[in-house]
Amino acid sequence: MKNRFKVLAVLAFAASLILSACSSSTKKAEESHANIDSAGQSSAATVDTVNAFKADWDKFKADASDKVRQNEDSLQAIKMRVSKTDAKVKAASNKELARLEEKNNEMKMRLNNYKAEGDIKWEKFKTDFTNSMDTLDKDIKRVL
Questions:
Q1: Where are the domains of the chain?
Q2: Which residues touch 58 (CB under 8 Å, ≥6 apart)?
Q3: Alpha-helix residue ranges (DSSP H) falling in 84-118
Q4: For residue range 68-121, what is the model confidence (pLDDT) as tens digits?
């Protein structure tokens, strides 16, 4: 009798283990599907963010490169005009032109050497670059 009771207890315990293991694997499967779906959504959001940054960067770089080229053209026009003046004016103007050309070249280097480092640094770079470019434009127009 005791043996039958022990066997029945062991069988009941084994059956409960099997049933609980099956139900937990079903829950685990459902949870893993939910995790895969949310991971797919977050990776899609990441791809969208990267694509938005790339589009913003490409537009900004194209606009800034155009502005640098326009500055180079303006500086060449100033050089041509200065070359026709007397030596005293030419010396003072050439010094200012050299400073403006150097600043324009620095802007070109900053643009070409920028490496993406996150949204906050991108916004700061964009603001600083735009402000520096505006200052350079004003200086060139003042000389023109």
A1: 2-143
A2: none
A3: 87-113
A4: 999 999 999 999 988 888 888 888 888 999 999 999 999 999 999 998 888 899
**The pair of three-digit structure tokens given for residue 113, joined into one six-digit string:** 């050497």
Query: What is the per-residue burial (b if ≥16 Cβ within 10 Å, else e) of 44-80?
Result: eeeeeeeeeeeeeeeebeeebeebbeebeebbeebee
b/e per residue 107-131 (b: at least 16 CB within 10 A): bbeebeebeeeeeeebeebeeebee
Total-model pTM: 0.65
- Residue 82, Cβ neighbours under 10 Å: how many? 17
Q: Give which of 114, 103, 15, 96 is closest to 67, Cα–Cα.
A: 103
